[in-house]
C-alpha cells in the first residue's frame, strides 16, 4: 500500500500542476483575444467583410481558452479518481490526457509549420496597411494605430517615411519618450531607425506563437508522466480488487 500511496501523492501534485497550466492557458487565450481584438480593429471593415477566409490568429485565442478549461476539468477528474480510488475515473482521466497530449503535439506542429506561412504574413500585413491608411482619415483609428506603434516600438506601415506624404511631422508614438515630447520631427534618429509595423508585428506574432508551441511540447512531457502514473494506480487498484475477495472467502471458511 506504501507504493500506491506514493503514486497517489505524486498524482495529486501533477494534477495541481495541470490545473494551474489550464488556468494559465485560458488566461493566455483571453489575453491573446484582447490583444488581437485591438489589432483586428485596424482592418478596413469592407475588406474584412469580403474576406471569408479564417486565419489562425483569429482562431488561436478560442482554442487556448477551450483547451485551458478542458485541462482543468481533466485535472479535477484525475484528482477525484486518485482520491476515491475509482478505476473508472482514472481510466477516463488517462484517455482524455492522451487526447490532450495528442492535440498539443498536433497544434504545436501546425504552428511551427504555418506560422511562417504566406497566409499569416498576408493577414498581418493587410491588417497593418488597412490600419495605416484608415488612420489618415479616422482619428479613432489613428489613436489605435498609435497604440500599436508605441507597444511594438515601430513607425508607419513600412517605416517612418510613410508619413511624409500627408503629415508635416511624425506622430509622437514614433519617438522615444513620446509622453514627454511636444513634437516628433522627421529628422529624429530613433524614429528613422524603427522598422515598419508590418514587419515588427509579423516577427512579434511568430515569436509569441513559437514560444507557446514550444512550451506546449514541454508540458506534454509532464502530461505523459501523468498518464503513466494514472495507469500504474489503475493497475494497482485492479490487483487490490482481485486480492480482497480472495481474503474474505478465506476468512469465512475459518
TrEMBL record:
<feature type="transmembrane region" description="Helical">
    <location>
        <begin position="212"/>
        <end position="234"/>
    </location>
</feature>
<dbReference type="InterPro" id="IPR000301">
    <property type="entry name" value="Tetraspanin_animals"/>
</dbReference>
<dbReference type="InterPro" id="IPR008952">
    <property type="entry name" value="Tetraspanin_EC2_sf"/>
</dbReference>
<feature type="disulfide bond">
    <location>
        <begin position="155"/>
        <end position="174"/>
    </location>
</feature>
<feature type="transmembrane region" description="Helical">
    <location>
        <begin position="54"/>
        <end position="78"/>
    </location>
</feature>
<protein>
    <recommendedName>
        <fullName>Tetraspanin</fullName>
    </recommendedName>
</protein>
<feature type="transmembrane region" description="Helical">
    <location>
        <begin position="90"/>
        <end position="115"/>
    </location>
</feature>
<dbReference type="Pfam" id="PF00335">
    <property type="entry name" value="Tetraspanin"/>
</dbReference>
<keyword id="KW-0472">Membrane</keyword>
<comment type="similarity">
    <text>Belongs to the tetraspanin (TM4SF) family.</text>
</comment>
<keyword id="KW-1015">Disulfide bond</keyword>
<dbReference type="GO" id="GO:0005886">
    <property type="term" value="C:plasma membrane"/>
</dbReference>
<keyword id="KW-1133">Transmembrane helix</keyword>
<dbReference type="InterPro" id="IPR018499">
    <property type="entry name" value="Tetraspanin/Peripherin"/>
</dbReference>
<keyword id="KW-0812">Transmembrane</keyword>
<feature type="transmembrane region" description="Helical">
    <location>
        <begin position="12"/>
        <end position="34"/>
    </location>
</feature>
Amino acid at each position: 500500500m506504501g507504493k500506491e500511496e506514493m503514486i497517489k501523492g505524486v498524482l495529486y501534485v501533477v494534477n495541481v500542476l495541470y490545473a494551474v497550466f489550464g488556468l494559465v492557458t485560458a488566461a493566455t487565450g483571453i489575453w491573446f483575444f484582447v490583444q488581437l481584438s485591438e489589432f483586428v480593429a485596424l482592418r478596413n471593415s469592407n475588406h474584412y467583410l469580403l474576406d471569408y477566409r479564417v486565419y489562425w490568429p483569429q482562431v488561436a485565442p478560442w482554442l487556448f481558452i477551450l483547451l485551458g478549461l478542458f485541462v482543468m476539468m481533466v485535472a479535477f477528474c484525475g484528482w477525484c479518481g486518485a482520491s476515491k480510488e475509482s478505476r473508472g475515473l482514472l481510466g477516463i482521466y488517462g484517455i482524455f490526457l492522451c487526447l490532450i497530449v495528442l492535440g498539443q503535439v498536433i497544434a504545436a506542429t501546425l504552428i511551427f509549420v504555418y506560422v511562417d506561412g504566406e497566409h499569416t504574413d498576408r493577414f498581418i500585413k493587410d491588417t497593418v496597411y488597412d490600419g495605416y491608411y484608415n488612420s489618415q482619415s479616422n482619428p479613432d483609428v489613428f489613436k489605435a494605430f498609435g497604440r500599436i506603434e508605441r507597444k511594438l516600438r515601430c513607425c508607419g506601415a513600412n517605416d517612418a517615411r510613410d508619413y511624409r506624404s500627408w503629415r508635416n511631422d511624425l506622430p509622437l508614438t514614433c519617438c522615444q519618450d513620446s509622453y514627454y515630447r511636444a513634437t516628433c520631427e522627421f529628422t529624429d534618429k530613433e524614429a528613422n531607425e524603427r522598422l515598419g509595423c508590418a514587419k515588427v508585428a509579423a516577427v512579434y506574432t511568430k515569436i509569441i506563437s513559437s514560444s507557446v508551441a514550444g512550451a506546449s511540447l514541454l508540458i506534454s512531457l509532464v502530461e505523459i508522466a501523468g498518464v503513466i502514473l494514472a495507469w500504474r494506480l489503475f493497475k494497482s487498484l485492479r490487483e487490490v480488487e482481485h486480492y480482497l475477495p480472495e481474503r474474505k472467502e478465506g476468512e469465512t471458511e475459518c
